[in-house]
Amino acid sequence: MTQQFTDTQYIQFFDGGTEPTLANLGGKGASLVTMTSAGMPVPPGFVVTTAQFDAFMHEAGITDHIHALLAGLNPDDVAEVDAVSAAIRADIESRPVPTEARAQTVAAYDALMSRFDAPVPVAVRSSATAEDLPDASFAGQQDTYLWLEGFGAVGEHIRKCWASLYTSRAIIYRLKNNIPNEGLSMAVVVQKMVNAKASGVAMTLDPTNGDRSKITIDASYGVGEMVVSGQVTPDNIVLDKVTLTLINEHLGDKHAELIPDPAARRLVEREVDADRRARRCLTDAELTAVATLAKRAEKHYKTPQDIEWALDADLPDGENLLLLQARPETVHSNKPATAPQPVVSTTTQPGPAASSGGFSWGSIKLTA
Questions:
Q1: Beta bridge partners of 184
Q2: Which end of the chain is more exposed for a tag (fewer CB within 10 A), N or C?
Q3: Percent helix, strand and coil across the chain, each to the nearest 5
């Protein structure tokens, strides 16, 4: 039986009906709530709000000490930054979570699990208040943890996400972009994982020149982290944004995939056989569906989008495309739109778009 959970100061469900704010949910969390409210196919989950992080840090009493460690730090002295980062993260990860905040998080996790016939793995993803903004993309600065089972692992990795506000990369990024440490906070997303047969990213423009008449899709087999992190060379496809006609495609090597191992209860890296490497990992219908979903995100947000998506092997065709994240494209979006360029193509148009369905990733630690 599904447990009902009412959003609280410390917990906000994607579909809880509470208005999302960047201050409470961070960039990623606010985006997931907004996309869910808009009816987009987002895997279910909840956000541990910044109020819980703030309560945790207040009870730990370490904020002033952290600011003192960061004051005057030279971003070019990588060894010093690494040492300070390691000290701060170890301190945060060793502190207890306030009793009431922890109890609310346990109840939220149990309520999420009650939506399924049996407990499912989840992803625990950092959602900092300064990330995924139109003028400052923080993608890759904090941590994501995949394929976690049971609240013990989830609770531990929520603290690891809090601590990842102070990774070396995040510290250096803030220093070099003059972003103050005072007032920063961290929300954490807890979200059902997807059994991805294929996944990747899509941009509602051509990232090489900012041409907004195109959609560019990178796709590979398995969980999309290998695409996001650059571990594999994905298929790269360019479509006309209006007609969804195939303009250009380059088949990537796609030499490996991250897939769940039910026996080991974790994600494993597996080599992709030569036959699958040699063909595009998306059908024409799937390609059209991804492009249509990207256009839908752009229409909703009214600005070019950079989305993450996955096709769930456990769901039927037409219901298996899931939207994992949508963020503003930050390189070209603030520039004048590029005029569409005429293209002559003899390729056929992909098949009709599949309708969207519901996600999940799954325990390896990833910085993404």
A1: none
A2: N
A3: 30, 25, 45
